[in-house]
Amino acid sequence: MLKKRLIPVLLLQNGLLVRSELFKIHQIIGNPIIEVQRFNEWNVDELIYLDITCEGAYDLRREDHKIKNLSEPLAILNAVSETCFMPLTWGGRIRTLEDMRVRFANGADKIAINTIAFDRPSIITEAARAFGSQAVVVSMDAKRVQDNRLEIYVAGGRRATGLRPSEWARQVESFGAGEILLQSIDHDGTGEGYDVDLIAEVASSVRIPVIACSGVGQFEHYADGIHAGASAAAAANIWHFKDLADRQGKRAMARAGIEVRQNPESGR
Amino acid sequence: MKILVIDYGLGNQRSVVNAIRLLGVDVLVSQRLEDLSGVDRIVLPGVGAFGDGITNLRALGWDRVLNKAVFEQHIPFLGICLGMQMLATVGTEHGFHDGLNWLAGRVDRLTPESDTLRVPHIGWNDVAFKDADPMYKGVPPSSCFYFVHSFVFKPEAQEVISGTFNYGGKWVASLRHNNIWATQFHPEKSQRAGLQVLRNFLASC
In this structure, are residues A233 and A226 in contact, taking their beta carbons and an 8 Å threshold? Predict the structure, then answer.
């Protein structure tokens, strides 16, 4: 049987690894390559890397963080893929098929798109044709608005779309997306747990896999996302601030009755 | 040992190359047919759509030279994911496409028997394999491998199936026929078990 996946999400901003809160506050937490090596040793199920740098802001502070030649995201992807023997999804700042092709060529197994998918949905279809839908992840960010209603936002949470999450999810599926990475702007970085209603709404409206993200503060939260219908439980911050995050996360999922892959010990 | 990973303009060869290098073997990635001469192993990776894949492969002339290398010179060959699917007689992704027809069969959309099972089939699935098959030598029973696909290979001859996975039915995880090795999963992304399959391929004769 297919196991439920547990996935760390790394956020890259201006060439540095950051943690995020409510899509607004970003705190530098480390070197973009070292973390990957750690996940690699743990044999994690999969890795998602999102470049959340704002356009044109890339080489900020390049000099003082001592990561030579990694000022540019493709160089980071390239370096990541050298040590990454787990499936790798790369997202952020992808606007064209050529952007995707370059990322695949540099070691991404799947690409994730968000804003461009909304602005020009036909790109989903074109990407699915060119690379296969299994390689095309649509990342979507939802936010609670008036009356607690859920709405999809793009452009890093800055632009409202007027779309309900279920509506947008059905659309991206029909355009050919292979998977959905679902984030909640309100839960991001809070540690309060997933927005399970959001996950249930999206997961029940499509047949493609949904990756739950945003809000995990304890390992026990993962199971809530899976029980709400997600095929994979993802998180960012908890991977940086808790020990043995992979093993403990998997254990918590197994305790909740979820079938997970027991990661082999490191070593080859 | 000389290993050729075929670049036909689709998908990422990079992870395959990285994984083989990790095993201490050097790899050549090439689009040029002449680089096939003198190689000891051939790997055909691939992600993407069947039609585009087979069209590119033919346009570059790989179909003819590969036929010769695999069936006359008996060079061990490994097809991964789309690289396995293209060995079929026909593929039905976005219309009908003739495959290489090395292993009789067709490639159809994965249709799990339960509505709750999602397609694409993405993630780690345990594989039931033939213990005696050299492909799985040293691989612990019911090891998980990484899959990411929407289509499956349905061979005519059941004997060529070396591994299956369960996902709302039983589907082909790998095929082996003489020097032809093929996996639906990605050994290069399947960590320890996957590296063992690659190691077995490199050791095969």
Answer: yes
